[in-house]
Each structure stands twice: as C-alpha cells, then as structure tokens.
Amino acid sequence: MSGTVGKPIFGAIEAGGTKFVCAVGSGGDSPLLARASFPTGDNPSLLMGEVVAWLKARQAEHGPLAALGVASFGPVDLDERSSTYGFITTTPKPGWNNADIVGPLRQAFKGLPIGFDTDVNGAALGEWHWGAAQGLEDFVYLTVGTGIGGGGMARGRLLHGLVHPEMGHMGLPRIEGDDFAGACRFHGRCWEGLCAGPAIAKRAGMPAESLPPDHPAWAMTIRYMAHALVNLTCALSPRRIIIGGSVRKAGQLGEDRFFERLRIEFRSVMAGYITSPALTESGIATFIVPPSLGDNAGICGAIALAQAACGQGADRKPAG
Amino acid sequence: MSGTVGKPIFGAIEAGGTKFVCAVGSGGDSPLLARASFPTGDNPSLLMGEVVAWLKARQAEHGPLAALGVASFGPVDLDERSSTYGFITTTPKPGWNNADIVGPLRQAFKGLPIGFDTDVNGAALGEWHWGAAQGLEDFVYLTVGTGIGGGGMARGRLLHGLVHPEMGHMGLPRIEGDDFAGACRFHGRCWEGLCAGPAIAKRAGMPAESLPPDHPAWAMTIRYMAHALVNLTCALSPRRIIIGGSVRKAGQLGEDRFFERLRIEFRSVMAGYITSPALTESGIATFIVPPSLGDNAGICGAIALAQAACGQGADRKPAG
Asked: Which residue, A5, A15, A115, A112, is CA-closest to A64?
C-alpha cells in the first residue's frame, strides 16, 4: 500500500451536477490508487453516504487519508464563519438546494482537514500544481460545458470574495445581426446563455457535437467567447486563460481549430488596446490554452484542495 | 516639524492625465503637511524635475521622507523585473509614451523605497486603510471621469497580473433601442466609450454637468454602469464596489440620486442570480458606494503606496 512508501494519500471528490467522481491518490505524477463515479441524482444525503462508504473502504485498503478535498458545482458557501459553510446553496438542481457537502464528511472523518472550493477553483489549483498554470500567480480557469464557470488566482491566491466568481453570467456585446434570444433563464443573453452547450444547441437546432465545422453557430460562439475573454482580461489581467469543459473540444470543428480561431477573434476584439508579448500573434498561443490535465483537471484539483487543506504539496500554499 | 513627534513622513504623487498632485504627510488622520499641483503638460522629464525639486524643498522643511508613493495614470509597467518598470507605457497622451516616472525619483532620492501602482490601485489602497474598504479583502475601486479605470484587491492583495486591470474597456450588452456608436477610439461601445464623461457629452450633445436630471442620457449611462458592475461582480466577486471620479457626482441629477438609481438598476440586471445579503434591497446601499476619502482618495492612496513600500502603516501589508 502507498502509505508504506511515505507519500501521503488524499481523498478527492469532484462534485458535479451529473456525477460525483471520487478518488484516492497522492497527486502529481503518482497515478490514482482508486477512482469511482456516482450519479448525482436528487438525494444529497444518500449520495454523500455512498461517497463516505467508498472513501472509508479505500482507507481500509490503502491506509489513512491525510486530508479530503472537494471541488464542487455551485453556487457554494465558502465563508468559514457561516452556518452553511460547505453547502451548495441556491442551485435550481432538484434536491440540491441547501445541500450540506462538507458536514457529512466532517462527521465521518472526524478531525481530518477538508479543503472545499468551487469546481473551477479546484481545477485551477490542479493546473497550478501540475498543469498549464505552473509558476503563474494570476490566471483564469474556465469550464465551458453544460454551463460556464470560472475561477483562478490573483496574486497567488484562489479567487473568492462576496461569494465566488460567477463568470458565466457576464453580459456581452451583441454581435451585429445576431437576434438569438439566448438560453440563460436568469439573463437570456449572458455568456452562458450564448456559449454553453445548451445555448449552442438551441441556436443551431442540434447539439454542438453534430455541427459541421462551417456551421455559422461556431463563428458566433467563438466570437462571443472572444468578447468574454477580453472582458475577463480587462477585469483581472490574467497571465493565462485555461479553457476546460466539453465545448472547447468543438465536435467536428476540433479542439485545435477552435483554439486557433478563438485566439484570432480575441486579438480582433481587443483591437490592440492592451499591449503585452502574451497578446501578440505569436504570444497568444500560450495565453489562451486548453487544460494540461485535460478531463482530469477536476479530480486532480480536488486532490490539490486536500493538499492545501493540510498545508502539503505546494511550493507556496495558496490561502484556501 | 513632524519628524520630531515620531510619525514617519511620506512623499506622495498622484500622477493624473491633467495634473500631478504632490503631497507630504503621514497618512490616516494626520493632515497633509504640504500639497501642490502641477499641470501634466507634454514634457515628462521637465515635470518630474519640478516634482523632485518640490519634494526636496519639503524634505528640507519637514525632515527626511521615509518613502515615496506614486499612483499613476496608465497603462503602466508594474513588473519589477522589466527594464521599463515604473514607466507609463503606451498612452496616446502626447509626450507621455514610454515616460519614466520612477527613474527620476530613484535618481534623486537614492535608496528611498518607492511604491508605484496605478492611480486606481493607489486609491483602492487608500480606501482600504482609511476609507470605504476598511476590513475588506476583496473589493473594486473605480474611477469614472475622463476615462474609466478600475483596481482593487483580491484576497487582500492589490490586483496586478499580465499588466493591470483595464476595467473600462470591457464590452457591455447593447440596451434595446440604443444606437449610440460610443466614444472609445479602440472599441467604440466599451464601458468607457459609453459611460465616461466625454461619452456622455457626445451622446447628449452637452457636458454631463449641464444635463437636466430627467435627460435620457442619464438613464442610459446608469443602466450601462449597472451592466458593468454586474460584469465585475461576476468576474471578481467583490464585497464592495467604490466609485470615484467626476461622473458619479452627476451634475444636476446629484450624487445621491445617481447612486440610488444605479443600485436599483444593478439589482435589475443581476436578476436575482447571485444571492447575498449584500445584494438585497437593503444591503446594496453598502455594496455600491462613493469613496469615503472623496477627491482625496488618489493622494491618500499615494501615501498608502509609500507606506506599503517601506512596510509601514498596514495592519497587514498588501504585497505591492
């Protein structure tokens, strides 16, 4: 068992709206020792019971866990002084309104440090340790899939605040001639309402995966994505923007082509206003990038949150 | 002289596009010991010579300065490893492209710590020490005047990054029926192109100060301001947004009415998506606020940058 070679083992939960991925492992280059996936369903306490049982069984198998990390869909309560710290708060997802995530883990693993943050901040921390954000103090991590979420770091610390960023709900300029009403039930044409998977499908009348590469919905989606990334660059001045989630795979258009076109559109929208080597024709290829950890960014991020919770594994411990 | 009572004295420069305000003082409740203003003009080295001479004369009068602080218009180079650190970089302002601000000060005051940041980060730091951002780790400070700039803190540190935030150049949704082309020479209808003083004047055909309170340009300006603040709230999750600059004084409409209407429009644009006590009908009055230091936010901020440069005066030293 891994405990014998001296590397601490962490329990990790990537809490998503469709499934909860659980894993135990040490992070970095070490392969995961175990991994399992549970449908999210509509009964949080039942699911958290399953998760706890699975983690307990892995602990029996591999030795004591040093900490737990949870990277969760949201909105979540990250205020440690709050009575609902560690809860998913006002989600429209049936059964999950005010669902306690950290509580059942604390109950089952008394005294164990537990790191808890948004899924995107978790993935950001994973990319910071082991992926595309290594060595960067200021960057943004986005997921563009069923919804759009964003996290990242400013000056070496994960972005928190009043609640946590909700980047997907920024408003964007209307592209000339576009009369699509958008798909967000709160804001219609916010970024999520224009560029998330369901928005693309609504606009095109078919899922993004089925769109031919020259379908005009791609041009629209990529142009709006560029507006959103310019807004984030103006607001946060990141040194890199990492885009995860399913939309960037771009079906028949393909991930490489999606990023190439997005970088061109970004420079067009920015119109030369902010000057930096990172935003030149050659620099932009390392400014807007996919996650190095690919679809493992989330679960690796949960391990990184566990590490941070017990003060291990970071060259420099990001606060929270 | 103040040196005799033991409080350190700082030199402060608020470097604006119209004038440079210089002061010496200890910050906080201590009144400024001296203050002077110089037209910015188009000859940076000449002006910096005047500034240095004025500071030297005040030093002879009041005793040695403990540090200097400069809060500057931009864009500026904040990367201490860069050969142009302390420069104003790509401004369209005649004479000021690649103007060295910190260099002449370093030359004249050898060995003295010099804090240098954007005008808005300076003002943010001033408000954090002595004003509307006391006790907050995450907040935004905006100036809306001839242009629009934004700074602030995330997790207790001033926002830096690739360059520094350029919040005024975010793109915003078009308000139904508005066909104004905007006034930004880079982006047309970005936030600055819609809501800065010259944009309001261009839209209305008269300066903002002359607009009657019921002029439709106010409704448009305030609605676009609300879109911008919602975008910043989505991107950064600030605990408070402080708005300085001349536009918020709102001429005949008045500052109180401007803020009241802005808060209502903010809640309308947000459409209940982010829930927090700060964003309720009662909470919003302390979420969107004018600067406590009023028009002294800039020069107080420069003193705060000087304090930070020599590690004094902060309960907790913000990194940079």
From this structure: A112
Q: Find residues 4-43 of chain A whose CB sits inside 8 Å of chain B.
A: none
Q: How far apart are CA A256 and CA A240, in angstroms?
A: 17
- Taking the Cβ of residue B48 and every Cβ of chain A, the question of whether any pair is shorter than 8 Å is answered with no
Containing H/E element for A126? helix A119-130
**Cβ-contact A222, A262 below 8 angstroms:** yes
Separation of alpha carbons B15 and B70, rounded Å: 7
Locate the chain A residue with the closest alpha carbon to B279.
A162
Q: Within an 8 Å CB–CB cutoff, is residue B230 touching chain A?
A: yes
Reported as a pLDDT band with limits 50, 70 and 90, residue A155 is: very high
Predicted local confidence at residue A56, as pLDDT: 98
- Taking only residues 255 to 314 of chain A, the set having a beta carbon closer than 8 angstroms to any beta carbon of chain B reads 269, 271-276, 278-279
Query: Model confidence over B141-175: pLDDT tens digits?
Result: 999 999 999 999 999 999 999 999 999 999 999 99
A148: which chain B residues are within 8 Å (Cβ-Cβ)? none
Side-chain-facing half-sphere of A40: CA atoms under 13 Å: 17
A5: pLDDT confidence band, cut at 50, 70 and 90? Answer: low
DSSP 8-state symbol, B76 = B
Least confident of A107-111, A238-242, B3-7: B3-7
Does domain A132-290 fall under CATH 3.40.50.300? My reply is no
Residue A72's CB is within 10 A of a number of other CB atoms, namely 27
Q: Is the pLDDT of residue A312 over 80?
A: no
For a pLDDT cut of 90, what percent of chain A falls above it?
A: 89
Per the DSSP assignment, residues forming a β-bridge with B244 are: B143
**B50 shares contact with chain A (CB less than 8 Å):** no
pLDDT at residue A6, rounded to an integer: 75
List the single best residue of B164, B179, B189, B274 to mutate versus A (max A Cβ within 10 A): B274
In the numeric block, which tokens belong to residue A133? Answer: 């954000």
C-alpha–C-alpha distance, residues A308 and A313, integer Å:
7
Amino acid residing at B184: C
How large is the ipTM? 0.94
Q: Residue A293 above 80 pLDDT? A: yes
State the average pLDDT over residues A111-130.
96
Domain A132-290 in the same topology as domain A9-118+295-309: yes
Radius of gyration of the CA atoms of chain A, in A: 20
The answer to whether residues A311 and A319 touch, using CB atoms and an 8 Å cutoff, is no
Indicate the pLDDT class of residue A91, thresholds 50, 70 and 90.
Answer: confident
Q: For tokens 């909860």, what's the residue? A: A20
Q: State which CATH number among 3.30.2010.30, 1.10.3720.10, 3.20.20.70, 3.30.420.40 fits the domain covering B9-118+295-309.
A: 3.30.420.40
Q: Which amino acid is at B123?
A: A
pLDDT < 70 positions in chain B: 1-5, 313-320
Q: Would you list the domain boundaries of chain B? A: 9-118+295-309, 132-290
CA atoms of A266 and B114, how far apart (whole Å) = 36
Interface contact B162-A227, CB threshold 8 A: no
